[in-house]
Each structure stands twice: as structure tokens, then as C-alpha cells.
Task: inverse folding
């Protein structure tokens, strides 16, 4: 039987789990949840999951928030308020009800859905798509929903191929030739490998499709289980795998490759090194992720800004940027940039030099500062003459320096220099 993918998407609600702290991003998530972290010059991480849903034809979305949610909620209100209730569209922001008592924090990913079952039922979706809000990728979810309906499975799990050693940080599955999941283990020390490649494993993307009525019954039963940790990866999915009711959906079947993209792109930017690398990769001549293609736009909140401006043209004091991305509202004043990514409203002053720098919105680089391989947090003002990226020991004393030599610079760290 053939199904209309667009029609199936219209019958689906997307539920985005966006409450994670993202502690491996260190001080970057001291004031914001990981899904609210800036990425790619204009967007936030959560914009990718939300854009995928909208572009796939899903117009009913819930976003569960918890940790340091203000920045995320403000972004959703500003950038994602275009849904029309009269067309049964909408985006609901669903904070954990911690104002009642401490026990009402979301206890796990499954509990984050359980606490909002009444809201989900109010939309009357036939299917529900559970999404993680903290990965960078482009995917047409309608293909995954179609596979779920055709297979008759109780759950369909989105998965991606990863090197076996990297799989230790994910939920990993073993499958047969028909995509049936035979085993699912969370963060295993000895990950199962793919049937045709012992060097690679299938890792869960944190994406699941269920029939709504079935999931609600399952979660209500899970909520009554005192031995459950109320988590999809630890409790819900392994239980369905054990009963033979789970199938896998490889990312390659539904990833969106447009423009210059040559292979499926998916990134967990959960560490400072991974975050810096994924952003800097955007400056490549042919980046692996193409955000310029218009057939799969990444929606976001776009501030009204003036165009970027480059000023001064003297030897040693020339406003220039090579192999870089510079957002609106930036002023490059007599500065030299190489392989940098600047978010909205960044200002750099005369004689400063930057290489491999990810500068978040409204940060500022003082005169004669030399910054290499760094992440500058939002609103940070780099003092004149500061040098970063040349003396590893000094950098490690003053800033958060990774093993790969990437320095995170925050306001507090700059204040402590004075």
C-alpha cells in the first residue's frame, strides 16, 4: 500500500526535547540551554530540528524546555510565532512545572512527554515524532513517518552510521537485513557493529516515531513503574526492542542534500572542539553543510541589522576578511580576518588580527588584539592588545582551553584579567 507522505506529515505532531544543559560545552551553557546555543552565524542549534519539521510538512510542534530556558523561550517567541491556530497549527513551549515543587522537574526524556500528554491529545495527532533539539542536520521526516506506517512497527528509531569507537557515547542498535532492531544498548562499552561492516555501528539520533495513542498508553504505564528512569533510551526503546516491535530508519534514506552537499551531514556539537570545528567548517570553499540552498531553508529569528561594513585601507590597517563568514551589523575596522565566523553585530578594531575565531553576537575585539583558534562568547569585549592562541600555558590559566587548543573566552574570564 502506498501512502501520501505529505498527508502523513500533516497528521503528525513533532515533540522536541530541548531541556538539556549540554555540560560538555562548559561555560557556554552557564546561561543558556544547549539547544539555544548559537550556530552558523545567524541560527541557534534548535532551529535545525524545528526547520526540518516545518519543511517536512509538520505544523504542530511542542518544545519541552527545562534548564536555563529563558534564552531559548525568548528565541522561540521571536522567531517561531508564524503558526496559525485557525489552521490547527502551533508551537507550544512546555517548561517543566518546577514552580509547583521540586518533583515536577522532568525526570527523563520520556517523562518530559508524559507530563504534557493532555496538551498532545488536544492537537489530536495520529502520529508523534520525538526529536532531540541539539543536533545539526537536514532531514525530511516524512520519509521516516512513511516507513513507520508501512512497517507496522510500534516504534521507528532514526539512526546514523558512526565509527565503532565513537558509538560508545550513543544509544547503539543491532539490526537485521529488514531494519528490525535486534538489540538496543545505551552508551555501551562494547558497541554492536553493523552486519556488513565490523568497524561501524548504528547510533540512535534520538528521533522516534510512534502512533500517538500507543505512545500515550506506554508512557502512562511507564509513569506507574517505580523501577523506571522514565527515559526513552534507557527504558522505552529497549522494552519495545525486546518485544520485537522496533525498526530502524537509517539517516541516509531521508537526509536532505542540496546545493554543494556531497554526503549526509549530521553533527553533535556537544563539545567545545566539535562546536568550534562545525562552525569553522562553514567557512570552507565547499562546506559539508550548505546553508545557502533555498529549497530547505533553516528558519530562525533574524534581527534587523545594517549590512556588514569593512573600513580602512592602509598597510597593516585594512578591513578585510578571507575565507570567512560575516553577519549583518558587523563592522570590520582596519582588522584582518582569516577563516573566521562572525555572528550579528561583532565589531573589530584597528590592527587586530583574527584566525579561526567564532565570535558570537555583539562581541568586540580591541585594537592590536591577536586571537587565534577561539570561541568568543556573546557580548565579550576583548581588551586592546590581548594575545590568545600563541602561549598554551598562559591561555590555559586565563581561559577554558581544550586539548585541541581551542580557547573559550567569556565575560567572566575577561573580567578576571583586570
Result:
Amino acid at each position: 500500500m502506498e501512502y501520501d507522505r505529505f498527508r502523513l506529515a500533516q497528521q503528525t505532531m513533532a515533540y522536541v526535547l530541548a531541556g538539556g544543559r549540554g555540560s560538555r560545552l562548559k561555560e557556554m551553557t552557564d546561561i543558556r540551554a544547549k539547544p539555544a546555543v548559537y550556530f552558523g552565524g545567524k541560527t541557534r542549534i534548535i532551529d535545525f530540528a524545528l526547520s526540518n519539521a516545518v519543511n517536512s510538512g509538520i505544523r504542530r510542534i511542542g518544545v519541552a524546555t527545562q534548564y536555563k530556558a529563558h534564552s531559548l523561550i525568548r528565541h522561540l517567541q521571536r522567531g517561531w510565532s508564524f503558526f496559525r491556530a485557525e489552521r490547527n497549527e502551533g508551537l507550544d513551549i512546555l517548561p517543566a512545572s518546577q514552580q509547583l515543587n521540586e518533583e515536577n522537574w522532568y525526570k527523563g526524556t520520556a517523562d518530559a512527554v508524559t507530563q504534557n500528554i493532555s496538551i498532545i491529545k488536544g492537537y489530536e495527532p495520529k502520529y508523534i515524532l520525538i526529536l532531540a533539539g541539539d543536533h545539526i542536520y537536514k532531514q525530511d521526516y516524512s520519509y521516516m513517518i512513511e516507513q513507520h506506517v508501512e512497517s507496522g512497527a510500534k516504534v521507528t528509531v532514526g539512526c546514523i552510521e558512526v565509527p565503532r569507537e565513537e558509538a560508545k557515547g550513543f544509544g547503539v542498535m543491532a539490526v537485521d537485513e529488514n531494519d528490525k532492531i535486534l538489540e538496543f544498548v545505551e552508551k555501551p562499552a562494547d558497541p554492536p557493529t553493523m552486519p556488513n561492516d565490523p568497524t561501524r555501528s548504528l547510533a540512535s539520533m534520538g528521533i522516534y516515531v510512534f502512533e500517538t495513542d500507543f505512545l500515550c498508553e506506554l508512557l502512562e504505564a511507564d509513569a506507574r513503574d517505580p523501577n523506571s528512569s522514565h527515559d526513552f533510551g534507557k527504558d522505552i526503546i529497549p522494552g519495545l526492542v525486546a518485544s520485537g516491535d522496533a525498526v530502524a530508519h537509517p539517516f541516509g534514506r531521508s537526509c536532505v542534500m542540496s546545493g554543494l552537499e556531497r554526503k549526509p551531514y549530521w553533527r553533535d556539537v556537544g563539545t567545545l572542539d566539535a562546536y568550534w570545528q562545525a562552525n569553522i567548517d562553514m567557512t570552507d570553499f565547499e562546506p559539508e553543510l550548505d546553508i545557502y540552498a533555498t529549497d530547505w531553508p533553516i528558519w530562525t529569528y533574524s534581527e534587523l541589522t545594517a549590512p556588514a561594513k569593512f573600513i580602512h585601507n592602509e598597510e597593516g590597517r585594512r578591513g578585510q576578511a578571507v575565507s570567512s563568514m560575516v553577519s549583518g551589523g558587523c563592522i570590520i575596522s582596519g582588522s584582518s580576518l582569516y577563516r573566521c565566523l562572525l555572528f550579528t553585530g561583532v565589531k573589530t578594531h584597528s590592527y587586530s588580527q583574527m584566525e579561526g575565531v567564532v565570535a558570537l553576537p555583539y562581541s568586540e575585539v580591541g585594537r592590536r588584539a591577536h586571537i587565534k583558534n577561539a570561541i568568543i562568547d556573546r557580548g565579550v569585549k576583548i581588551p586592546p592588545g590581548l594575545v590568545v592562541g600563541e602561549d598554551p600555558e598562559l591561555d590555559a590559566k586565563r581561559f577554558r582551553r581544550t586539548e585541541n587548543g581551542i580557547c573559550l573566552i567569556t565575560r567572566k574570564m575577561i573580567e578576571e584579567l583586570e
